[in-house]
Every structure is written in structure tokens, then in C-alpha cells.
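INTERNAL AUDIT FORM
Audit reference: QA-55
Scope: verify that the stored structure record matches its stored sequence.
Auditor: D.O.
Record contents follow.
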Amino acid sequence: MDREERRRGFKRKLQHEDPGIHNRNQQDYDRYALPEGWVGCPAFGEEISGIIPSKVPLGESFSDHIQGETYTPKQVIHQQRLLGRELGLVIDLTNTTRYYPVSDWEREGIRHVKIKCQGRDSVPDSESVNKFIDEVSKFFSHKTDPMKFILVHCTHGHNRTGFMIVHFLIHTKSISVTEAISQFSRARQPGIYKQDYIDALYMSYHERKPDSIVCPHTPEWKRSSDQDNENHVRNGGMTIDDILGDSIPFDQQKMMQEACYHALDLVITGRWKLPFPGSHPVSLNRENQQLLRQRYYYATWKADGTRYMMLITWDGCFLIDRKFQFRRVQMRFPCKFSNKVIPEKTHHYTLLDGEMIIDTDPNTQKQERRYLIYDVISINHVSVVKLPFHERWKMLEKEVIEPRNMERDTLSRSAEPYYRYDLEPFSVRRKGFWLLSTVTKLLRKFIPGLSHASDGLIFQGWDDPYVPRTHEGLLKWKFPEMNSVDFLFELGVDGRPLLFLNERGKKRLMSGFRVVFKDELDPVFCSGKIIECSWDAEGNVWVCMRIRPDKLTPNELMTYTKVMKSIKDNITEEVVLKEIDEIVRLPMYADRIRTDIRAHEHTSSARRR
């Protein structure tokens, strides 16, 4: 009996047993209807890197409704044992729980993981992909029996299953999308047969799809009634508060948080939530500005962007926000290589520090997101926090920026590049630092010419190590009108506005503080959120500038005290320039500035040659 006859026979049997069975409101139909094409679909494919792709097994309750061979969890376990394979994990990608009871696996000691993926014309989202990769990676890293395997199934074991396995192969084997798709196709013929799934894979890794890659025809056993859906993309301007990247599983994030702490030589306490470990500057005031005379400093502009650290691994790049939350972005960072040969390795556990800004072309208003890297904490698992800043800054260029630029330039000239840098979500640059003797030019010419907002200056100790959390020697100066404090804002029961700061982990009400809101901000909407406020000395009131979605807690009381001291000291631009003019005449500065200028001229000359 061929597949079509079995299908018609099965349909006649159901109609004979219950004339109303095809009414979708009938519970029996919903519960025991077979997935379309399931009977003719091959049960499972060849093992690929310890993973067995499979169609969905159907529980014993379906057996009476199947005209043909059954495929129950019990049969799956037995069939794999005959092939010398014990199952240790089953990953279910279907969008329902009706096909079998999970206990069918668990009573055999097999762990079951559910990752709901919609299927049909919906490609699995990045969060689901990340969870899949994390679950598979954990299984293989923790298993003690080499004969334990993973069974992965969606409904038919081709599109969603193939999509996930291909992602895993690319992440762990460092192979191209084309090779990963080919490996899956050989293991589970005909492979992925939906064009949008194949296109999404190439888009995910910014690889050009070769002309030779042709989507297989839909298998004979799959009679799809799916309708094409239009994908609607919401257009809109970029903002610094946009959420970038895809969330990752909790366990993976916890592991990466601990890796960051290890790179920074920080002790992990018993706290459930680890705080953001990145270095924070302190506000410049009359007292700490004396540090500029005691140590050798360089200056850079303070970009009004969003703070992110970035962890680069073989599994992808992860933006780390001030909440110490990780989100995965598809970026590529090749390791340093010689003779302009295409690099074989990419960075693994390199930790950077920087800020995300949005450049806007003043003529066309075209926006471009850019990550400005200003420090490096570790290079390929090796911590560099104890090195002086000027060495870390040079290392950043040599180890991270130059290899990336070299490969990008090479690929831009290729007719068939294996990676598309132009499809990345943002560009990357090393942030510039300048001699203190150039601060006047920095303030008067450079900052006004920027294509993104700047609210002041940063003074970086040239010989300083990387100091996590608050760094008393890392100084920030803001234009006086932009000095700000981050408060927690709440509306009291009587509608009275309340401002809170953080003190020893608890919120502290700042009694008597008043706040006003700009026209576009609604106090009701702001209630319960962190708001950034500037001080209006004339009105003796705080002015809400914006909501801070990147922060979970308000400033510490000590931070507020330092900002207020800076505000009261009223260190204007003229005061800063006058002070620096005196500082650069000091012998300590004059000698080093001359040395640095000669070194810079020598480097520039060598590059021109």
C-alpha cells in the first residue's frame, strides 16, 4: 500500500468511527490528528556530532489512529539501542505538548527539554537558538558516557531541527554555513527544504549564499498547506536606548558573568545578583583635580551614549549592559595574523570596555550605530588589567582592531566573501585619547564637529591599571549644565513626586527634593523608573532629562555627594582650560609630552612608508 492509499484509508477509518471527526471544534480531532505527512516521513536520520535528527515520536495513545508503522518514545529508545546508542537528552522543538507524555522519556532516565518553536513560516528566534546551543553544549561538556546521544525533533525533523543543528555546528566546529547545511543534508536527506530557513542562516552569520546552494524541493510525503506570510519590519529612528542583540539562557549568562569577574580578579561573593564590574569615573572637583598634577593623564571626549562591555567568544559576541545582562550579537573578531593570510582563529574570551553611540550625518540624517572601544580587560583568556593603560590601549589596536580591519578590507574586495561585515548591527572603532596639551582643540573643534552627542571630557591616567567599579583616579568633567544624578522616581499615594537614592543596598528618600519634567515626559509614566536629572540652581530644583532604561538602581548617596560637590565647585570650561594650561607646563608633563609627540611622529612616518 503506497502512502496516498494509507492516507485515504486512514481518513476513511476516522470518518467511519466518527462522522464529525473533521470538525476542528471536536476534542478527539485536536488530540489525535496526525501531523500532515508524518506517516510517510522517515523516522530519523544519521547521527551528526552526537545528535540524532528525528521526526516527533507519538505516544501510545496515538497508536490506534495510525495506519502504518508506529514510532513511540519506547520504540525510539529501543531502535537507538540496537544501533549502539543510548539517549541521554531529548530536545523537543514542537509548538505543542500533545504528542507524548514527557514521562515516557524520564522514566528511562532521559532528560527532556522543551524549546517551543512555532514552525510553518516562522523561523526559530535567536533566543530559542541560544537556548538550544546552550543545552547541547552543557550536555556534551558534562556527560561521562561517550555513548550517550541527543535526539532532536520538531514535527518532521527537517526544518526547525536542521536550523538548530546547523547553528550548533557553526558555533562549535567553526565551519561555514554552507558546510554545516551540507553536513545536515547528508545526515537527514533532503535536509532543510524551506528557503526562508536557509536564507536566515546565511543572514545570521553575514555570509554570502553561494549560487550553487539551491533549496531542495518539498519532499513527496510533505503535503504543505502553509500560506505565505509577509514579514513586516517596523521602521524608525535609532535611539541610544534601543535594545540590541538577543537574550541568552540564564545558566550561560551566569557562567559568563563569573568569567568576567575572573578576568578582573574580583571575588565572587554569595550574592544572587552580581553587580556590573566595569570601571566607573568620578566627577571632577576642586580636590581631585589635583590628581592631574600628580599623575600623567590623557584626555578623551565623553560620549553621551550607552555603556557596554563586550565579551567575545567562539560562540558569538555578547554585549554586557550596566544591569550585567548579556545579549548576543553576531560580530566577528579574528585574531592577529601575519603575511595578510586569512586568519584561522577568532578571539575567545576577550573582554572589552566601551560605549555605543549613534552617529547622524548632518546633511542626510542617515544614522549609523558605532561601538567605541576604550579599554581591554582580557585577550583570549589572559587578563591584562594590571598592565598600564597606554599598553592596553596599544594592545587593543594591535590585537583587536587591526586584524578585524585587515580581514574586512580583504573580504570587501572578494567576489564571494565568506563573511559580510557590512551586515553587522554596528561598526567598531578604538576610541581616541589625546595629550592634555590638546584639550583646547578637543573642546573647541573636535567635540563640536562630532556626529553624536558629547557631554564633557574623560581624563584617563596613562599609567593606571584597569580598576573595576568606582575608580577614584578616572575623572569625568561634564559641561556644567549637563552634570546629572540618576534618581529612582516614584509618585506617592497623594501624587507627590518622590526621589530616591541608593544607600547600602536600600533606597533612601531624599526629603525636600523637588523635580520638574520636560514637556514630553509624563511623570506618571516615569514613576518606578530611574531618571537622569540635572540641577537648576536658579529654581533650586532637579530637572528630569530622560529615563534611564539601562539602569536598575539609582546612584549611590556617595556618588550624589560627589556630583553635588562638582556642581557647587562650578568647574567651567574656562576653569578647566586654565588649569590644564598650567599643568602641561610642569616638568613631568612637558618632558613626557615631547617624548610622546616624537613617538607619534615616528609611528606615523613608519605607516606612510
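Auditor finding: record pair retrieved intact. The radius of gyration is 30 Å.
Action required: none
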